[in-house]
Amino acid sequence: DQIQKQQLTIPGIEFEESSFRYYPEGNLAKNIITNLESFYRRILFGKTGFSLSSIDGTGQTILTKRNWRQSETDGQDIKTSLNRQVQIILTDTLTKGLEIYQAKSASGTIIDPSTGLIIAMSSIQSDTTPNNNIDNISNLFEPGSIFKPLVVAMALDSKKIDTDFICSDCSKPRVLGQYTINNWDNTFHPNSTLSDIIKNSDNIGMSNIIQRLDKDNFIKYFHALKLDSKNEIDLIGESISPPKKFIADIDLATASFGQGLAVNELQMVQAFNTLANQGKLISGHFNTQILPSPINVFSPETVIKVIDILKYAVENSAIKSLKPKNLEVCAKSGTAQIAIGGQYSDTNTIGSYVGFSPCTSPKFTMIITINQPQKGEWGSSTAAPLWFEIATKISPLL
């Protein structure tokens, strides 16, 4: 290039050096890579070397105690856990889902169950205005029914209930003061077992379970799952919800089915991943050189019980029509109404599906979230089909 510049002697033409950012993969994981670069800037760029010294009138260095020298430090490479093929599958499927369900946005996060390494993370918006936000960590939402298996795990782990639990009050609405708790489809399931409560996504049954768990135990597990604190994620811009005290009985009851509390997508998939990781919570991250210490939340015995419940729910609910025969899945769907002006909207919802596969020695844990779909209001009819499509494609790759 330098030789060509010297040989080119056309009058009026000059060369000017400039720098610009280039993404070899285009928009694929663009926001993630940019954010990671900001987070690890000091490591990647290293330090510039310099010297500070006194000189005499002739420009010669004078040796004094004020002389100071800092050696140059080369920047270091960061190897991320992003899997290119999985990232493409996730992004393409979310893009398709955004169009099919005419949603405001769609996002997904896939993690390695045992290490917490993030295999893929993507968020797609219908609004094409450029922004650097990563919805997976910056957007808060009420998780809805995907939160129910965690409450069951809390109650089992604290020994407030056992697997022989029967909901004797599930034949009618549950009244708490001026409030009435009903099921999403206004049906009742008398004498429901734990497996039935999760399969039918029974709000009445869940409110009975959390009453036995009690507020103090719930808050203890909620805190242990880091649902009220920031993650150790190596990204900038995470949002968390202000701490909630769950003082009123109705607050605790609605929390049992994921209403009245807010989390970001990464928090939710991390918490659910404890069921895939023998009860251990491990923070999601991209840097393969970092291995966060796992935190014991649930006992392995508790996890085995919840896995059986999840497996039963997938195999015996309407979701089973989406599941390929050769794919073992432990998962739960959820639908949450969006609060607008202090009132829950009847038309604006967030659908989600979270789970892991296979149920024993899982390869991945994944959450898919569809924000305000105009076609299909339930997580089981929006997020779940996308989840199974992605799972079928990535399972052979992991």
Automatic annotation (TrEMBL):
InterPro entries linked to this entry: Beta-lactam/transpept, Beta-lactam/transpept-like, PCN-bd_Tpept
Record-linked Pfam families: Transpeptidase
UniProt superkingdom: Bacteria
Domain Penicillin-binding protein transpeptidase residues, every copy: 109-386
An example Gene Ontology CC term for this record: plasma membrane
UniProt record, GO biological process: cell wall organization
Keyword ATP-binding: no
Location of the protein in the cell: Membrane
UniProt-recorded Gene Ontology molecular function terms: penicillin binding
Gene3D superfamilies: 3.30.450.330, DD-peptidase/beta-lactamase superfamily (3.40.710.10), Penicillin-binding protein 2a (Domain 2) (3.90.1310.10)
Keyword entries, A-Z: Membrane
Protein name: Penicillin-binding protein transpeptidase domain-containing protein
Organism of derivation: Candidatus Shapirobacteria bacterium CG03_land_8_20_14_0_80_35_14
